[in-house]
Amino acid sequence: MAEEKKIPYKIYLEEKEMPTAWYNLRADMKNKPAPLLNPGTRKPMKQEELEQVFCRELAAQELDDETAYIPIPEEIRNFYRMYRPSPLVRAYCLEEKLQTPAKIYYKFEGNNTSGSHKLNSAIAQAYYAKKQGLKGVTTETGAGQWGTALSMACAYLELDCRVYMVKVSYEQKPFRREVMRTYGATVTPSPSGETEAGRAILKKHPGTTGSLGCAISEAVEAAASREGYRYVLGSVLNQVLLHQSVIGLETKTAMDKYGIVPDVIIGCAGGGSNLGGLISPFMGEKIRGEKDYRIIGVEPASCPSLTRGRFAYDFCDTGMVTPLAKMYTLGNNFIPSPNHAGGLRYHGMSPVISQLYHDGLMEAVSVEQSAVFEAAELFARVEGILPAPESSHAIRVAMDEALRCKETGEEKTILFGLTGTGYFDMVAYEKYNDGRMTDEIPGQEELERGFATIPRL
Amino acid sequence: MAEEKKIPYKIYLEEKEMPTAWYNLRADMKNKPAPLLNPGTRKPMKQEELEQVFCRELAAQELDDETAYIPIPEEIRNFYRMYRPSPLVRAYCLEEKLQTPAKIYYKFEGNNTSGSHKLNSAIAQAYYAKKQGLKGVTTETGAGQWGTALSMACAYLELDCRVYMVKVSYEQKPFRREVMRTYGATVTPSPSGETEAGRAILKKHPGTTGSLGCAISEAVEAAASREGYRYVLGSVLNQVLLHQSVIGLETKTAMDKYGIVPDVIIGCAGGGSNLGGLISPFMGEKIRGEKDYRIIGVEPASCPSLTRGRFAYDFCDTGMVTPLAKMYTLGNNFIPSPNHAGGLRYHGMSPVISQLYHDGLMEAVSVEQSAVFEAAELFARVEGILPAPESSHAIRVAMDEALRCKETGEEKTILFGLTGTGYFDMVAYEKYNDGRMTDEIPGQEELERGFATIPRL
């Protein structure tokens, strides 16, 4: 106990201890993630093909399976200094509340105006777009965190920013739209009548509340139809996981500094950006056989790509205009129940995470949203941070793990990623506070309908 | 320049460098703030009289003009460790954007779920109430930050919390209400039909959008009519400024550590809690003749208590049920235009701040809200933090000062308090983004109507 007292509530690294290079886990993976395929030729995408969608350096990062460390440009490091290093928090109050012998830590990425970790990749993607002399970028956003993050990065670099926002979020979160507008972005609810992809989806599913898959189709089309624009994406891609490695690298440095070794590492998983970033240096050690960790991805039961999806090549979007990625997928046409409150609505999963999961290097569990909000409320009350619904998926599983330790008496060290805050999710919290939240899990028939849209190669 | 580079973007103290005692500026003031008067007898309130409204230890702190340092109980220090020390930020990006030779620093108090500095006093007040064995507390909230902070503190200590929320904020900020509910508080829009004070105000001003003064009357009445409840207040009082000294103490320690001496210290002023807390150790040095600083309080032109009010004894509330305080006041009946978007809506001002201002130890300026939001937007874009409208009053004046330095070439060091974030103020930002924000300054006649309600002693 005496030794433990030395660990502060929050471990902040000094600025000079911040990473100067991103870590590219792919370099250490024995089975590399499968390459993206050209949707026309069904052949692996080449650099020059990717450059039609993404800007040059990002296309290179997307394809680079070899370089373990990629230097972070100084301009990006300076931006990081405005809100990083983020704290690694010892959840003393949660431990006390749960009366668990487990030691719980969380890496908190919500202390910035975008409210999440998404800013780590937004600034990188905006920086490379600016460097290439582009005028602007287009993107989609689901819960709104990525759109906000990209708006902030673009405002900082004076780039134009056009965001297609999943309609259900646009309606539930009018204030998210205003934050993006304050940062100078144009925000359009998706599906919209502005693009061919949007019009096609509206025709096929009138009254749809949208999905990330639809919004991606629209954003990709919008970029392609404008001179000097490229599309950027907040999750799923290899490049995004690369940028998000800053989360894991900081966590590892902070833990090493205090001699802390996690037994279990838990992260929520929508497209996989936070999970991939958080686990990267730990997974690297695990793959290299240096250490062993139990690693768990947590997804919503209403959008269970890892736990109930298929490992197959699928389109990243609903409109089937993007490259094909080999990933765990529910089918590009799968749209979670509008009853589902949080983010993590994506039909697929990062190819890196998918490969790691397929190779048995990590586990996945799905949780129901009422249990997630119950954990969120308890966490808010004892730890003083109102968490994002997405992040609360990880809280739920971390708490369950800590409660198991209470039964067994094990003093496990649990690390989880607290990706963001729920300040713009109060409609969902209201539903929970009013006792109106229910759980809706897709039946096998519904899943089969989704699977039917996975292309046969 | 080389020496400057050593100063990081954010200075975080270590936990062991956090203050262990609050600093009571009154102990060093030559002219003490005038005592509160009993509203019936018009004689100075005694400890036992104050205890009918406030809990015991807080009543003692309210009256203590002698003790310079009051230890912070360990339980409160542990709570502080969940979100403090707060960062002292060097605004490199803002300096660059303004092309000013000035060095700008801000103490950022928004990195907690209440979104402001209010939590510093909320936990202290809730702690003493709990310690006294009370069941719960009642309070008012304007912009909603104080109510949120108190809800969080009460949830942590398992105390009941009843909040009267100024109606205009209740309507503009439905999500604030949900945050408070998530923390288990009961929230009532004020004026309400629940209290005599509320009913009287509604009768006199049907359709009023409320004011802090009305909400205080209701909260005081609600506490008095319930067994085991006391009233707590988020600003104005001596005890609140005492707790908020933690802001200034951390700032001073951080600045001393890097050899930084501010020339100008700027804080927004509603009831005076942030301003009083930020300036306290600096003002102490100034009063003791050890150092000189220029100190500026910034208030909205639509609620200009320091710059256009009278220095007189007045009720702290509109219903005239509270003790009388000697302060700069616009009259207890003064209600700012509903057009006014931010907080800082209080008719009076902390007696400590009022006395310091009266004694010429500090300056005050008022600013119009369109200029405030212009500064807020620029700040958000370059510094990456979307500020609360209240805090943006200080940003406006800090920017003006930095722009003056640009003209004169002076390399002044400017320190300001960034009290919180604007995530629940997007209705106001929307108004600004849509070009619908106007400035409405009370005419002399309107002020006279307010002054007429100041009692003659």
TrEMBL record, chains A, B:
One of its GO terms (molecular function) is tryptophan synthase activity. Its EC number is 4.2.1.20. GO terms for cellular component: cytoplasm. Residues 83-420 form the Tryptophan synthase beta chain-like PALP domain. The modification N6-(pyridoxal phosphate)lysine is found at K118. It is an enzyme of class 4 (lyase). InterPro entries: Trp_synth_b-like, Trp_synth_beta/beta-like, TrpB-like_PALP, TrpB-like_PALP_sf. Pathway: Amino-acid biosynthesis; L-tryptophan biosynthesis; L-tryptophan from chorismate: step 5/5. Its cofactor is pyridoxal 5'-phosphate. The keyword Hydrolase does not apply. Keywords: Amino-acid biosynthesis, Aromatic amino acid biosynthesis, Lyase, Pyridoxal phosphate, Tryptophan biosynthesis. It catalyses: (1S,2R)-1-C-(indol-3-yl)glycerol 3-phosphate + L-serine = D-glyceraldehyde 3-phosphate + L-tryptophan + H2O. It comes from the Bacteria. Belongs to the TrpB family. Tetramer of two alpha and two beta chains. The beta subunit is responsible for the synthesis of L-tryptophan from indole and L-serine. This is Tryptophan synthase beta chain. It comes from Suipraeoptans intestinalis. The gene is trpB.
